[in-house]
Amino acid sequence: MSLRSTPTARQERLGAELRRMRQAAGVTARDTARLLGVDPAKVSHIEAGRLGISEERLRRLATFYSCGDSTLIDTLVAITYEQRGQGWWEAYRGILPASLLDLSELEHHATRLRTIQITHIPGLLQTEAYARTIFGAAMPPLPRTELEARVSHRMERQRVLSGRRASPYEVVIHEAALRMRFGGRRVVREQLTTMAELGERPDISLRVIPFASEAHIGSGHAMLYACGPVPQLDAVQVDAAHGMVLLDTEPQLRKYRHLFDAMQSEALGEAESRAFIHSVVREL
Predict the structure, then answer these.
(1) Do you know which PROSITE patterns this protein is assigned to (predicted)?
(2) What mean pLDDT do residues 239-246 have?
């Protein structure tokens, strides 16, 4: 089996979980290599996601590491059968940055999504006109073909909120994002009206933190918390100046769970939040 030059975030996550499992058991990579009858370098490649692993070998390792969490093991096994090219986002490979494809894959496999946004409307709730405005302001400017691809990709990402497998979506958004006039009054009016209507769906929880809130919890933090099929596969996505960052260690996950809960507790209720958004629309 040849090495992957650019493993996906999900392939890297499988390897990372195997590494954590091994380290928790106090087993060295050399001991694992002996069990599998391979060179220690191969174990390093598996744990980095550069090399795949079969179901049989994964289950052998789980036993060797004394991991009795059958739900976690079965979930990891399911990942071993995933093949690059199966997801809709693969149509954008080579056109868009790999990080955007990783984000689509993360959302696709999530069982619940929770986001905090301070200055922008969440991507999964954006209208096409709003998204086009955001991407049109990129620095340096995006080539026309990439701008169109990013807009199209963002619209397709919204699939996770529809159909039989729709993921429950919890949004905490600051009033600042509602007041930004990206694209002008018409674009913002359409965007806020659409978002408020989506907030009426039972699987979407939309709550606003108004300027009047005196809390200073998590000021400036924007993030997406994706709940995995098992808690060990939860992940957090944050944006940085150099691009998207994925976090998945338990201390990091715990920090962002607490951050979301704290900010949600300071937000208006769902009905009150929708009414608040409509009041902003009337002011435009």
Answers:
(1) HTH_CROC1
(2) 82
Q: Are strands 223-227 and 112-117 parallel, antiparallel or unpaired?
A: antiparallel
Please report, for residues 123, 173, 212, 258, 265, the alpha-carbon distance to residue 217 in angstroms, rounded to integers and kept in the order given. 23, 13, 13, 10, 10
Answer positive or negative: Cα dihedral of 226, 232, 233, 237: positive
The stretch 172-198 carries a mean pLDDT of 97
Q: What is the pTM of this model?
A: 0.93
Pinpoint the alpha helices (H) of 114-268: 128-136, 144-157, 175-179, 185-198, 250-266
Q: What is the pLDDT of residue 5?
A: 79
Q: Report the b/e string of 181-220 with b at 16+ CB within 10 A.
A: ebbeeebbbbbbebbbebbeeeebbbbbbeeeeeeeebee
Place of tokens 């990783």: 102
Q: What is the structure's pLDDT at 183?
A: 96
The phi and psi torsions of 240 (rounded to 5 degrees) equal: -130, 170
Cα gap 16→123, rounded to integer Å: 28
Q: What residues does each domain of the chain span? A: 9-80, 88-283
According to the model, what pLDDT value does residue 220 have? 73
Q: What is the pLDDT of residue 85?
A: 67
| Residue 173: closest CA among 133, 126, 129 | 126
Computed from CA positions of residues 158, 160, 164, 167, in that sequence, does the dihedral angle turn out positive or negative? negative
Over its C-alpha atoms, the chain yields an Rg (Å, rounded) of 21
Topology of the domain covering 88-283: Endonuclease; Chain A (3.30.870)
Report the CATH fold assignment for 9-80. Answer: 434 Repressor (Amino-terminal Domain) (1.10.260)
